[in-house]
Amino acid sequence: MDLNNRLKNLIAILKKNKIKVAVAESCTGGLISYNLTKIPGASKYFMLGVVAYSNKSKTYFLGIKQKTLIKYGAVSAETSKEMCKNLQKISKTNIAISITGIAGPAGGTKKKPVGLVYIGICSKKKIEIAKFNFNKKLSRINIQNQVLVETIKLMENHITIL
Fold this sequence. Notes:
It is a single chain. This protein is an alpha/beta fold. It has a single domain (about 5-160), classed as CinA-like (Maf protein, Alpha-Beta Complex), CATH 3.90.950. It has helices at about 5-15, 30-35, 55-60, 65-70, 75-90, 140-160, and strands at about 20-25, 45-50, 95-100, 115-120, 125-135. A hairpin with a 4-residue loop joins strand 4 and strand 5. The longest helix is centred in the last third of the chain and has 20 residues, at about 140-160. The chain is globular, with a radius of gyration of 15 Å.
């Protein structure tokens, strides 16, 4: 199934089940929020989208602990988990999603290469943090698009447990 059909199916499930969603993005810069809202009627399921790109914005808007950022870095499972949990508290949604990573082409290190992305998804019943190492040779937009695809897959899987 192509991306647009997959997205339409996901949105239909969100609407039908009255599932509310919020998204906190970093390396995707709003791509997930855009795709979730490009179909008319998005206000029925989409409550909030935040692009918290800098550490300062992650701390200020999402309540990420400075200690977490210093110890683990912005691109980490721990930061993704805090982003997700705090966003859910702020938004009071059924599902909160967090994205943090290195889309490139620069910014990577040996420990955290370009293409490293954490996607968090949480509900009251479950928190899942998925780690991806996309091919660092992909372009920035291709990495971001891969994150979109994986986020949709995670959402599809997660809504089955709500």
